[in-house]
Amino acid sequence: MRIMGLDFGSRTTGVAVSDPLGMTAQGVETIVRKDENKLRQTCARIEELIKEYEIEEIVLGYPKNMNNTAGERAEKTEEFKAMLERRTGKPVILWDERLTTVAAERVLMESGVRRENRKAVVDKIAAVLILQGYLDSRGN
């Protein structure tokens, strides 16, 4: 059973998928949109990837504040979750994503990726970290 991980941002959505055994996460791509509220193409691309990878469930990064409260970004994520469930018919699990972008930046810096090249892949790496955290929590 393959699982998809998403790092949903205001302009980009990082995408990762698990291996068929659900043990490891691999980055797939970063979906970019021009306007924060124009989600049709983002959803269409996610649906294409669900078919391509035969995804059974989706893990969506949930951006809680450091004090464990849900802010404006978390509300937008909840709306996106509902939209994804309606459009795909797949279960969507919210997963605490605090500090995943910071961790993704650190991984890229330590790997020697130049600053100007990091922006293009940081969301995809964050999606990998979100999905891997979820997979690890399942005890595989």
Structure description:
- The chain has helices spanning about 40-55, 70-90, 100-110, 115-135, and strands at about 1-10, 10-20, 25-30, 55-60, 90-95.
- It has about 140 residues and is α/β, with parallel strands linked by helices.
- The protein has a 5-stranded mixed β-sheet with strand order 3-2-1-4-5, with helices on both faces.
- Helix 3 packs across helix 4.
- The longest helix has 23 residues, at about 115-135.
- The chain is globular.
Strand order of the biggest β-sheet: 3-2-1-4-5
Q: Profile the largest sheet.
A: 5 strands, mixed
Beta strands, count: 5
Q: Report the span from N to C terminus.
A: 12 Å
Q: Estimate the helix proportion, in percent.
A: 40-55%
Please give a quick description of this structure.
This protein is α/β, with parallel strands linked by helices and 140 residues long. It is built from 4 helices and 5 strands.
